[in-house]
Amino acid sequence: MELVPQFPLAETPEDAARAAGRSLFLGHVDFLKGVVAMDGLPPADRVEFCLAGRSNVGKSSLINALTGRKALARTSNTPGRTQEVNFFTLGESHYMVDLPGYGFAEAPVKVVAKWQALLKDYLAGRANLRRVFLLIDGRHGAKEVDEEIMSVLDRAAVPFQTVLTKIDKPKKGELDKALERTRAVLARHPTAYPEIVLTSSEKGEGIETLRAIIAGLE
Fold first, then answer.
1. Residue 42: inside a domain
2. pLDDT by residue (tens digit) across 154-163?
3. What is the spatial distance between Cα 202 and Cα 64, in angstroms, rounded to a whole number?
4. pLDDT higher for 45 or 115?
5. 142 in the Ramachandran plot: left (φ > 0), alpha (ψ -120 to 50) or beta?
6. Residue 190: how many CB atoms within 10 A of its CB?
7. How many structural domains does the chain have?
């Protein structure tokens, strides 16, 4: 009998869940505002989820794939370019939040400190935040910088679910190793949600699964 891993892969959604996900993400989606301080946050009047990940993990590409848009979120090869907490509206029921990429390799120290402080305040003080989707590069698995953000989420008592990106890039053996490495790290973090989603924005893999999971948040 094969043992089920501690953090199994998310199952393919049923038709109704898939339809709900498509309705949410392929309907009326708009950029609302970029926020640089807590007093700029919109009212906490709807279900909110956010996407977090280190710079160049493929977050903007994933947002574009989820929403079926080519340029809803700007993509950049420059680490740390996104310096705002960006809010998007999904109809009148959800906020999708794009957090600044962490691991600012080229950002000034003062800028890094400012955004780390905003991130901690946001995570700890947003009552309608249902889940953080933590993006990790499927070519490498969880790195030290990813574990740092997991610790921030633990301290804020915010549940997070891991999403491996770019799974079309590594060979299967390399992806398996990245998964194994990621699971070992997740086991040390109490707020980690016990399912992992595998995605490829380029190939469309896992997109409907992630849409369905988000549409099911209450």
1. yes
2. 988 999 999 9
3. 10
4. 45
5. beta
6. 10
7. 1
Q: For residue 181, what is the domain's CATH number? A: 3.40.50.300
φ and ψ of 67, to 5 deg? -95, -5
The residue among 30, 29, 8, 12 whose CA lies nearest residue 208 is 12
Cβ-Cβ contacts under 8 Å for 94 (sequence gap 6 or more)? 24, 46, 47, 48, 49, 214, 217
Joined tokens for residue 168: 């079309």
pLDDT in tens, 4-48: 578 999 999 999 999 999 999 999 999 999 988 889 999 999 999
Say whether pTM exceeds 0.90: yes
**Angle CA 138–76–83, to nearest 5:** 100
- In a domain, residue 7? The reply is no
Query: Domain of 68?
Result: 15-215
